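**User:** My hope is that you can spare some time for a protein that puzzles me. I have put the entry right below:
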Amino acid sequence: MTHDATPDDAAAPAAARSRAVALWTDALQALLLICVVGWVLDLPRRILGLGLYTEQLLAVCLGYALALIFIGGKNKPIWFDWLCAVLSLAICGYIAYRYAAITFEIALLPTDLVTGAALLCLLVVEATRRSAGGVLVIIILAISAYVFIGPHMPGDFATRPVSLPRLIVYLGLDTNGMIGIILHVALLIVVPFTLMGQVLGRTGGANYFADLAMSAMGKFRGGAAKIAVFGSALFGMISGAAVSNVVAVGIVTIPLMSRSGFSPTRAAAIESVGSTGGQLMPPVMGAAAFIMAEFLQVPYGSVVIAAIIPAVLYYAALFMHVDLEAAKQRIGAAQVEAIPRFAEVLKSGWHFPIPLAFLIVTIAYPEIFQIPIERAAVYATAILIVLSMTFGYRGQRVSPREMLRAVLDTGRAALDIVLIGAAAGMVVGALSISGISFGLTLQLIELSGHSLLILLILTAIISIILGMGMPTVSVYVLTATLLAPSLVKLGVVPMAAHMYVMYFGMLSMITPPVAIAAYAAANIARVSGWTTGWHAVLVLHSVPVRAGAEPADARQRRADRVAACPQYARHFRRHCGNRRLRVLLAIGIDAVGIRRGRACDPHSAARLYRRRYSRLDRPRWG
C-alpha cells in the first residue's frame, strides 16, 4: 500500500540536516574558543607539559574559522562548502602537525608545501570574499599581481623580483604572511575581549550602561541623543566593537530618539557615529589598536594613554553636535515615562564596573600585576560571569544555558576579525617580500612636496577611500603599512601617525558603501542604510589633524620649555616624579594650547596652571 508524500515527510530530512549543520557549527565554535582560552591561560604547558609553537595554534584556529565560514553561513551549505571546510581542516591540521619540520623545509620550496600553501591562500581569499566583501580580495589580488609587474617598473616604482612558488609559500606559511602577527593579535587578544563583550551583553551590562546614560542625560535638552552618545561611550569602554555597540545600545536609544523628535535616519546616524567611537575609547579599544601596539612594539597601555584625549574630543564634539541639533529642532528631554535615578542604577548594577576596574588596573600597572592583557580579559570575563550569575541585574539572572550560548556565540562574533587578520597578513606579506611599501613612501613624500599638511590631507583622503570598501582592521593594516611611514619620515611621532590613520580607518564603519555600523543602526530604525551612512558622515569632524600636525622634535622642544618654566618647575619636579604623571601633565598643558587655538606658551600655561591648581602650594601637598 502506497501513500502520497506529505509536507511533514519532506521537511523531516531538511530539519535533520539543519540540526546537523547547527551541531557542527557549535562544535567548531567551541573548539575555537577552547583553543584560544586554553592557550591564553597557558594550559598546554601547565597541565599537559607540552611546548608548542604559537604558529601551530594559529594554524589550527584558522582551520576552524575557515570551516565555520563555509558551513555556518546564512545559506544552507552545499557539497562545495563541505569540501572547502574539510580541505581547510586538513591543510591547517597538516601545517600544525608538521610545523617544526616545515620551518626547515620551507626554504627548499618542496611541492607539497607549495601546493598546500596555494590551496590555503585560495581558501582564505574565498572565505574573505564571503565575510568581508570583494574589495579586500581585489586589493590582495592587485598587490600580488604588482609583485610580478614591479620588477619591470622604472625608478622608485620598481620592486625586487619574486618567483611564484616563493610568493605562495611566503604568504601561506611564513610568519611574516598569513600565519603571522596580525592573525596572532586577532586570535589571542581580540577573541578574549570579544568573549568579554558577549558575556557583558548577555548578562545585562548593555542595559546597565544604557540606564546609567538615561539617568545622567535623559532630563536635558536633546536627552535621547545624549543618552545615545553617553551610553555608546560607556559600552565602548568595554566592547570596542562598533556593531556590537550599535546592537546593544541602539536597540534602546534609536527608538527613543525617534519618539523625542529626531528623524529615524538622523537617530540611526547619531547612534552609528557614537558606537564607532567605541573603537577609540579606552580601555578596551578596537582590534586595530591591539595591532597598532604590535606594529609599534609598545605596550598596549601606551596606546590607551595616547587614545584618551582623541576619544574625549571625539565624544565631546559629538555631544555638542547633538546638543546644537536639539536646540535647532526644539527637542527637549527624553520621552521616557520614568527616568531611573542615577544612584538606583549604580546600586542595581554595582558589580559591572568591577571587571572593568580590574582590567584598567592590570593595563595601567603591568609591572606590578604582570598579567598579559589577553589573560586579564579572560580573568575579567570569569569575574563578570560569577558576579552576574550570583547577583543579576534588576532582579534577573542569566541561566547557565544562556551563559553557555553567549560563550559559544563568541566564535561566530570573532569570525570576521579572524578572517580579516589572515587576509591582512597576506597583504603585509606581499608588501614585505616585494618592497612595495618603501617605494610608495618615497613617492608620497615627493607628491606632497615635503609638506606635512598636504601629506596629512592625502593620507586622510586615501584612508577614507579605502574605508569605503573595507572594515577598520583592513584599512588600518594597509594605511599603517603604506601611509604611516611617510608621515613618520616627515617628523610625525610614530604613535600619532598610526593613531591618525587608525582614526580615518575607523570611519569605514560609517562610510558607504560598506558602513557596517550604519547599516546595523539603520536596520533598527527601519530606514535606508545608504542614507544613514551619508548622514553619519556629515556628523564627523577632524579631531586628529591637530595631533598629527606637529613634528616630534617641535613637540619635544615645547615639552622641554614647559618643564623648564620657573613658575611651576618646582611643582613639576616635586609632584610629578612618576613618569605617568609627567605624561598626563604634558597632555593637559598641550590641551590648553589646543583649547586656546594656538601653540602653548609656557609662561601663560604656567599662570593658568598656578591659578587652576594653586592647591599644590598648600602645606598638605608638601
The longest helix spans residues 7-40.
